[in-house]
């Protein structure tokens, strides 16, 4: 047992000692462990981490009782990368999942870590690996520093005995007093939401348009059409997607839906941010939902599965 003694002649030292004891108590009290067994789910989880690593240096991990969230570019945002977050239902990926916060009244464990380190620690799970992965465990623990231990049980082609591949990813534990700066974003209301089934085509197209114009206009209509317009001094290029599925705007995220009676809605965004998002995607999905909030933002949503969703917000720019 560690006993914190009160210094006799220094109130500053006393405060520091109390704070140190409290932080150690919090770290020892909180627990998190999860285990994946399905190979497909493990590969999807690795692809999510790889996507985040291409967008930002660091990511925020929010662990709740029933969901796990990852956020990149939550506050400052780089000039070339968009806000992206992923919400994962724990029951979908993790048949074993346990989270105990630092205090009973708290709902989360909030961690900040290197997105690249997380992605590398999960690299053994990807489909191109020659080894067969039986399971993957995530465990919050304290060694010389707080970390998330990623423990993969693998069997190589030359051996029938499983071995453990362990990576310790250093994390910063965010105290509850700082949580307001790291909370999960809300999905804005949009007037039109269109499902685009050609994700690869969209990625290739936007990658080319970024060399033509700094801004990209998303022009959607209730007739199921989406036009992407790039304008320069020399030319105006318009690409049209027709007969798209029109989705009802989600009313459960941020108040009442903003469904519109207007037949056409448009919004201009930074072409570099749009290209950065699409080029970062490492997931095999072919359909993406694009929500347009007139003159405010573009909301992108990738349904990896019913309870595993990737979101991004591209803010509007002045043309």
Automatic annotation (TrEMBL):
It comes from the Eukaryota. It comes from Drosophila arizonae (Fruit fly). Coiled coil: none annotated. This is Checkpoint protein. Keywords: Nucleus. Belongs to the HUS1 family. It is found in: Nucleus. Its main location: nucleus. The keyword Nucleus applies.
């Amino acid at each position: 047992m560690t006993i914190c003694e009160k210094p006799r002649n220094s109130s500053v030292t006393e405060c520091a000692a109390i704070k140190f004891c409290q932080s150690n108590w919090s770290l020892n009290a909180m627990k998190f462990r999860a285990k994946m067994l399905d190979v497909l789910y493990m590969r999807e989880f690795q692809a999510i981490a790889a996507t985040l690593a291409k967008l930002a240096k660091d990511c925020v991990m929010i662990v709740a009782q029933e969901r796990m969230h990852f956020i990149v570019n939550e506050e400052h945002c780089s000039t070339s990368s968009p806000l992206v977050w992923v919400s994962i239902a724990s029951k979908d990926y993790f048949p074993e999942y346990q989270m105990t916060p630092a205090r009973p009244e708290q709902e989360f464990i909030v961690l900040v870590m290197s997105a690249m380190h997380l992605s590398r620690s999960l690299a053994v799970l990807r489909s191109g690996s020659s080894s067969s992965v039986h399971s993957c465990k995530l465990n919050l623990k304290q060694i010389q520093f707080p970390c998330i231990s990623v423990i993969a049980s693998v069997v190589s082609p030359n051996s029938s005995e499983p071995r453990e591949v362990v990576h310790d990813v250093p994390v910063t534990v965010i105290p509850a007093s700082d949580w307001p700066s790291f909370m999960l974003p809300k999905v804005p209301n949009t007037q039109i939401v269109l499902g685009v089934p050609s994700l690869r085509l969209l990625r290739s197209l936007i990658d080319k348009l970024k060399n033509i114009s700094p801004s990209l206009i998303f022009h959607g209509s209730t007739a199921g059409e989406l036009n992407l317009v790039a304008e320069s001094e020399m030319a105006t290029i318009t690409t049209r997607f027709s007969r798209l599925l029109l989705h009802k705007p989600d009313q459960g995220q941020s108040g009442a839906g903003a469904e519109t009676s207007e037949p056409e809605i448009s919004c201009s965004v930074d072409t570099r941010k749009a290209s950065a998002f699409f080029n970062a995607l490492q997931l095999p999905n072919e359909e993406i939902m694009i929500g347009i909030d007139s003159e405010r933002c573009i909301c992108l949503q990738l349904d990896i599965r019913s309870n595993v969703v990737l979101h991004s917000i591209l803010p509007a720019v002045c043309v």
